[in-house]
C-alpha cells in the first residue's frame, strides 16, 4: 500500500466546498451545507483538479488594482501545442520587465533573465519545478499537466500535487507563528468564509528558486500572498483569486487568477529527481547526485 493510500484510514472530513473525502462525523468548526445542497462529495481517490493553464489569468472584471505580470509584447509566447498546430517553432515565456508595478531591482532581474533566454545559449533559465523544486506560493498553482488533490482534516488542509507528490500544508490555526522560518511553501494559515470559500494567508517564503509566475518574476522575504479558493455551482471547476503584496518588489499588489477542472484521475506515482542531471546549467540549485553508484 502506498503512503497516500493509507490516508483512507485517517479521520478525514469532507471539504467544505466539495474538495474533500467522504463525510465522517461532522465537526462544529466546519460547514457542510454546500455538500448537502448538491455539491460533489466524492472520495479523493475518485477525482482531482487539473490546472487550465501554466500562466496566470486576468482577475475578474471590476477588480481594483494591478493585474498579473504579462508576457513581453515584443516577444509573443507560442506554446508547444499551438506551435504544432500552426507549423511554427515554439517560443519562450518572456516577461514584461517594463511593467510599472516592478521595483527597479526586480525589473533589472527579469531583464537579465530575459536577455539570457533570448541569447540562444543552452543554459536557459527554467521554472523551479523543471529541476524538481517546489514552485512556491503562489507559483506552484500554475503547475500544469499533473493534477492536485485536497485532503482536509480538522486542523489542516493538505494540497498534494501528483508531480513528485509535493505536499503543501495549510494550518487552520488562525494565527501565524511569531517566528517563521522561510520555506518554499512558507507558512500558510487557512480559514473558511461562508459556504464555499477557503481563504489562505501565506508568509515566510524563501527567495531561492521561488518565483511569482513562469516569467521568473522575483520577490523578497516580505512577500505576502492571499489565495481565495471557490468551487463553481456545478462542482466541476475550481477558481483561485490571488493577491500578492511585497513592498520591496512591487509598487502595488498584484491580482491574479487560476482555474482547475475536475478530472477522474487516481493519485499516480511520478518521481522527478531520479536521473535529473544538470546537463544544461539551468541556474537552479542542482539535485543531490551521488559520486558513485550505490549498487
How is the secondary structure organized here?
Elements lengths: L32 H4 L11 E4 L28 H7 L17 H15 L29 E5 L3 E6 L4 E6 L15 E7 L3 E7 L20 E8 L5 E9 L8 E10 L32
Parallel strand pairs: 4-5
Antiparallel strand pairs: 1-9, 2-3, 3-4, 5-6, 6-7, 7-8, 8-9
Give a structural overview:
With 295 residues, this protein is mostly beta strands. It has one domain (5-263). It is 9% helix and 21% strand. It has three helices and nine strands; from the N terminus they run H-E-H-H-E-E-E-E-E-E-E-E. It has helices at residues 33-36, 80-86, 104-118, and strands spanning 48-51, 148-152, 156-161, 166-171, 187-193, 197-203, 224-231, 237-245, 254-263. A hairpin with an 8-residue loop joins strand 8 (237-245) and strand 9. The model is unreliable at 1-43 (pLDDT under 50).
Span from first to last CA? Answer: 25 Å
Q: Number of domains in the coordinates?
A: 1
The gyration radius over C-alpha positions equals: 20 Å
> What is the averaged pLDDT score?
79
Classification by helices and strands: mainly beta
Task: List key phrases describing it.
single chain, about 300 residues, mainly beta, nine-stranded mixed β-sheet, 3 helices, globular, disordered N terminus
